[in-house]
Design a protein that fits this description.
There is one protein chain. It contains 20 helices and nine strands. By secondary structure, it is an alpha/beta fold. The chain folds into three domains: 168 residues, no CATH class; 178 residues, P-loop containing nucleotide triphosphate hydrolases (Rossmann fold, 3-Layer(aba) Sandwich), CATH 3.40.50; 99 residues, Helicase, Ruva Protein, domain 3 (Orthogonal Bundle). Strand 4, helix 12 and strand 5 form a beta-alpha-beta unit. About 4% of the residues have low confidence.
């Protein structure tokens, strides 16, 4: 029986905009990037339970974007691959924040979000003119888990949304069930079929090591990572030969200022660990305090467990981890730490935790809890980039984006980054400052080229010294902002 929810991709996009615009009016349009990403993940997991994946699914996936946001560019092959990989539903961090805000303000934005999600997922389920029981069951699972967060957080009751199970049109097997990898075997004159689950593809160890070597600076960190990988590889060989291996913690502490490459190195380590068999997947899940700590008793453990589940098989990277222990004895951050320590023990064979932050506060964080001290004994120090290293990062940014520095601009940029390093203070952002300088350069260069009558390709890619200099108006505006901060 065909479903009444089937719509053309164009009509679905109008429906998507109508739903999200209505939500943004009572929520916030700043949530658009996170909401679009979350909706896409839900669509992939939903279609994991569909009867098949075709071009219509691609067309619908390319309509999941809010007003003013870039349109996705899915192709059938990469959509199918992503659908096969998606499975577990995890409530997004922004939903927890919505629910906590609703509870304080006596509003119901989070419950409106649940109704919006139900509507959109029903349209996505019906893309093949069929809403299977497995798809409706998935939508119900999503809404039930979000509703549970609202209930336990104390969000006031609201009108019920649609029941997805009322719109089931068939019990069609899921895409994964129908298309699991099959191996033909023969014996006794009969052919049989053996279903084998496809193992996740392991990252390429040598390629990841090349990426590590290509990073600017960080020579000591690179050496320590290589030593660690050699240690782990020999450990694996000893295990394979039934030789004893000493106990070893794979968890790490990254110490250093912002913008020194900590997240980049953590991502490489997660892949390297997967490549040599320490981890089963190798994904990196990055959070800070807001991603782990809730505002009500009993909610932090649940919120932290959700994040841990998404990190199993990979690395959980906690930035500014010291903030978890800085709120006193009654702070919910303590609950997050205890939940984390238990998970590190329960999943010690397939979870690695990396905590990161400023050197002083992080050392205090580790010594604040005996459990942390016993599990984190491997420290990586990330020094600030000097002027030449900042300049090298800037050159890489220019090359990657097809900008060419004239010799004069090269000298101007080197002078600028040398001064930036020598005059650095507690707000020094290292690589982040380079990115900001690059973005400012692009704006100035664009303004200069836009004023030309017939700019050539050479004009479009050339960076001149004036493109690197802050004009007087910008300098005055920055001075005013600094005064306001003080």
């Amino acid at each position: 029986m065909p479903t009444t929810w089937n719509r053309s991709p164009e009509d679905f996009h109008k429906i998507y905009l109508a739903n999200t615009d209505a939500f943004y009016r009572i929520g916030s349009s700043s949530l658009a990037p996170e909401l679009d990403e979350f909706m896409t993940k839900c669509a992939l997991s939903l279609w994991n339970r569909a009867g098949g994946i075709g071009e219509r699914h691609v067309q619908m996936a390319n309509q999941i974007y809010s007003r003013g946001r870039p349109q996705p560019k899915w192709l059938l092959w990469n959509l199918t691959g992503s659908v096969c990989e998606e499975d577990v539903f995890l409530p997004p961090v922004f939903f927890w924040n919505l629910a906590e805000t609703d509870a304080k303000r006596k509003t119901e934005t989070s419950r409106t979000f649940i109704r919006m999600l139900t509507n959109i997922l029903l349209y996505l389920a019906a893309v093949d003119d069929d809403v299977t029981y497995a798809e409706a069951e998935y939508i119900t699972e999503c809404t039930d888990r979000l509703t549970a967060i609202c209930d336990t957080t104390g969000v006031r009751k609201s009108r019920d949304g649609l029941n997805p199970l009322d719109y089931v049109t068939s019990g069609e097997p899921s895409f994964i069930e129908k298309h699991s990898q099959q191996v033909q075997t023969s014996g006794g004159g009969q052919n049989g079929t053996v279903i084998e689950e496809k193992e996740p593809e392991k990252p390429d160890f040598d390629e990841l090591m090349e990426q590590l070597d290509s990073l600017v600076g960080l020579e000591t960190v690179k050496k320590e990572v290589k030593n660690l990988m050699n240690l782990v590889k020999v450990r694996k060989l000893r295990e394979a030969n039934d030789l004893p291996v000493p106990p070893m913690s794979f968890h790490m502490v990254f110490l250093g200022n912002p913008g020194t490459g900590k997240t980049t190195v953590a991502r490489l380590i997660s892949g390297l660990y997967a490549a040599i068999g320490v981890l089963s997947k190798g994904q990196l899940i990055e959070v800070d305090r807001s991603g782990l700590v809730a505002g009500y008793v009993g909610q932090t453990a649940l919120k932290t467990q959700e994040v841990i589940q998404s990190a199993l098989g990979g690395v959980l990277f906690i930035d500014e981890a010291y903030s978890l222990s800085s709120g006193g004895e009654n702070d919910f951050g303590r609950e997050a730490i205890e939940t984390l320590l238990k998970a590190m023990e329960d999943h010690r064979k397939d979870l690695v935790v990396i905590v990161a932050g400023y050197t002083g506060p992080m050392e205090g964080f580790i010594t604040s809890n005996p459990g942390l001290e016993s599990r984190f004994n491997r420290y990586f120090y990330f020094p600030d980039y000097n002027g030449e290293q900042l300049m090298e990062i800037f050159r890489i940014q220019c090359k990657k984006n097809s900008y060419t520095l004239t010799p004069e601009a090269e000298q101007e940029a080197l002078k600028m980054f040398t001064e930036l390093y020598e005059e650095r203070n507690e707000n020094f952002g290292n690589g982040r400052d380079v990115r900001n300088c690059f973005e400012d350069m692009v704006v100035r260069q664009s303004n200069r080229v836009a004023a030309m009558e017939n700019p050539t390709k050479e004009d479009l890619i050339s960076v001149l010294p004036e493109d690197l200099r802050e004009d007087e108006e910008d300098a005055q505006e920055e001075a005013v902002q600094e005064e306001k901060k003080e």
